[in-house]
Amino acid sequence: MSPELTIIMPKTSPEASAPDTSRPVQPEVAASTFYHVLDGQRRITIPREWRAMIGKGELMLVIPDVRKKRLTILLPSLTRAIREKTRGGDDEVFSEEADSADDLFAQCDNISIDDAGRVKINSRLLDFAGITDNVMLKGGGRRIHLYAIDKAQAKEKPVDTEALERALAKWGLRK
Question: Tell me, what DSSP letter sits at residue 149?
């Protein structure tokens, strides 16, 4: 018998459940896990489900995650938020904030999706994460995490119930 999953959703009033038609709704939550192979030019195909939500030509930021030896693509809304947060470094040429923003962005890469649904990440970042051929794209909300995997790992994995339980508890979604 499998464990029962209970997700608690916040209660809303009837007025709150009416859709807001004043602006278009574009959910930006990368969910699921996909497995791909880099093409001959070391490009990664972004899954169709995610491309539709990201939008063609939208700028995204790729950041190396030194804790987990992976790359993290920030989706457009999170990229804009990071750029806004670090704008203090733009006000002065020589300041601690400017140096910190320079240090951050010097290690990153700007990318956007091409007409064929691919992104080209610079070799320095791919090498950092050890991505040479097979890659796992793991949805992380407003982030996409890229992991190097070998050919044997490039297949569907079962649901990681322990990780799911920890996440549900962390966000108060478990009864």
Answer: E
Give the per-residue pLDDT at 154: 58
The arrangement of strands across the sheet holding 60-65 comes to 33-37, 134-139, 143-149, 70-74, 60-65, 109-111
CA distances from 79 to 102, 114, 130 (A): 15, 18, 24
Confidence of residue 128 (pLDDT cuts 50, 70, 90): very high
* Residue 34 host element (H or E): strand 33-37
Domain residue spans in the chain?
Answer: 33-154
Q: Find out whether 122 and 111 touch, Cβ atoms under 8 Å.
A: no
CATH of 33-154, one of 3.20.20.150, 1.10.10.10, 3.40.1550.20, 1.50.10.20: 3.40.1550.20
User: What's the mean pLDDT when you consider all of the chain?
Assistant: 79
Per-residue pLDDT tens for 42-85?
A: 999 999 989 888 888 899 999 999 899 999 999 999 999 888 88
Q: Following DSSP, what letter does each residue of 48-113 receive, concatenated?
A: HHHHHHH-TT--EEEEEETTTTEEEEEPHHHHHHHHHHTTHHHH-SSSHHHHHHHHHHHT-EEE--
